[in-house]
Amino acid sequence: MQKVLALVLASILLYPLSQPNAQTKSSRASAKSKSGHALNPQIQKILREISAANIEATIRKLVGFGTRHTLSETESDSRGIGAARRWIKSEFDRYSRESGGRLQVEFDEFTQQPVQRVPKPAQLVNVVATLPGSQAESKDRIYVVSGHYDSCVCAQDALDATSDAPGANDDASGTAAVMEMARVMSKYKFDATLVFMTVAGEEQGLLGAAHWAEMAKKKNLNVAAMITNDIIGSSHAEDGHIDNTHVRLFAEGVPPEKEISPELRTLLQTGGENDLPVRQLGRYIKEAGERYVSGFNVTLVYRKDRYLRGGDHSAFLDRGFSAVRMTEPNENYKHQHQKIRVENGIKYGDLPEFDDFSYIAQVARVNATALASLALAPAAPSNVQIETVKLENNTTLKWDANKEPDLAGYQIVWRETTAPFWQHTQDVGNVTSYTVKNFSKDNYIFGVQAIDRDGNVSVAVYPKPSRPPRRPGG
Length: 474
Description:
By secondary structure, this protein is α/β, with parallel strands linked by helices. It has two domains: about 40-375, Aminopeptidase (3-Layer(aba) Sandwich); about 380-465, Immunoglobulins (Immunoglobulin-like, Sandwich). It has helices at about 1-20, 20-35, 40-50, 50-65, 80-100, 170-185, 205-220, 260-270, 275-290, 310-315, 355-375, and strands spanning about 105-110, 120-130, 140-150, 195-200, 220-230, 245-250, 295-300, 325, 340-345, 345-350, 385, 395-400, 405-415, 425-430, 435, 445-450, 465. The strands form four sheets. An eight-stranded mixed beta sheet has the order 1-2-4-3-5-8-6-7, with helices on both faces. A four-stranded mixed beta sheet has the order 15-12-11-17, with no helix packed on it. Strands 14-13-16 form a three-stranded antiparallel beta sheet. Strand 11 and strand 12 (about 395-400) form a beta hairpin. Helix 9 (about 275-290) crosses helix 11. The radius of gyration is 24 Å and the shape is globular. The N and C termini lie far apart (about 60 Å).
């Protein structure tokens, strides 16, 4: 009897290995992709070095300048936006010295002509620190992370450039996170280039970000992704509850263009409205961030921004770059754009006492994880196509070969059409075409990612049909 039981048990245990179907293979491959590709020790070390205490010190220093209104004092060494930007640059310069001069720091200055919130020409200055990529085949690929260092009391008067506008959360929090990432990450090497940017003029209409993005467009720079951090400072909701375990990540779907390009039209005709590059970037950041930052959730919001509102990523989106925004889960508008005061026992004003510095550090770690993962990984595969030469229940994909010398190969990911995130993964080796057996393109959404020898994975690319969409029928 014991022998019979032993044989039955053995057959049950061995059956999945000797008789796998496509679903079993896919599920095992997926587990391997999400947990089998070992965590990168360099990224883990970066996350450990990000300091909530440093972030707090930076925020308190920025608040100490009184106001950082874009049109405020520029000559004083202790008050106004001029003093703030010079101090930010001095900190970036210090990080560069500590990293052996690898961080390239500069003022990005321009004259802003009059607009609604800039009544006369004004000199605006972004502070930009660039960490050049170390791999020849990847260094022209750029990843940007930003926060805006200007502040205002716009709820009362958008042109008030003299009243105290501490801006501890909006957006000293994002600025401090970017600066802390620059301090830590500048000590490490990445294949692609990282740009740490603090911008001015956000409260006047995204002016600083628009200037840099327009320059990048004119120079045809390969800005592969951009993340802006704006209002990431508080874990306390207006009703008093605390949420310090997640951040909102806003990722646009179909861009609201007046005219749809032929390429976009094809993607929409094939059901790819949830798989354009910005959404793929959002999925990537969520997966990487949650994988490395234990117990912290990245909530992917299927919108460009909060309802009819905007941030510096919008300036990049408007120029064709993939860009997303990170923001705390619950905004308290009594602590945003308000003059400092007490009314009916309620304290108004964007003050450091309302920030949660440990929470900001967690958001910075999510950012750092995404940026490092992207900058260490190969470029996303190009010219990804799905074969449509015949009707079949298999799915064949093809793509152009990557150029990186450390490329290991590619993986195909797929999910049901109603699923928001990838459900299955198949490593396919260093090939440029692969057929997924028994999974039909009619029922699943597919993507292709590149992998290097260290296990770093690119953003997924949604495939175009290998020929124009068929006419309706049959």
